[in-house]
Amino acid sequence: MIHTIKNFSAGYSPQIIFTLVDKKINSRFTELRNDEYQNPAPGTVVDQGLVENAFSKESFDFYLIAHRATIATALPVHYHVVANRSNLSKEQIEELTYHLCYNFFNFMGSIKVPAAVMYAHKVANYAHDITMPSE
What we know:
By secondary structure, the protein is α+β, with helices and mostly antiparallel strands. The chain is globular. The termini are far apart. It has a single domain (2-131), classed as Nucleotidyltransferase, domain 5, CATH 3.30.420. It is 24% helix and 21% strand.
């Protein structure tokens, strides 16, 4: 894919971050605060210990809790950065991902996944609904 993009025109070398987003995972995180277990605060990132590639800039993964859970346990999202061809560090990508969860149109606050992922999900559902005959 990256080879094809670079061959688009002479001297064309875009900065690309290719990330897989897994929002349907079974992991749950809690933190111990004031001698009781609570949901982690929004913006909590787990990028060491439970992840596979913690120390690589090119390919790594992390968990992010971008929203405040008011009912039950907070659901983290697992991000796999497959290719980082940008000048951004791992920490900057994690922070950018968190801030992208605040850009959903007409909604004040954060959502579970970045807005682009939510929009892609909505378009896929819409395309499915218009191509499948109703029963």
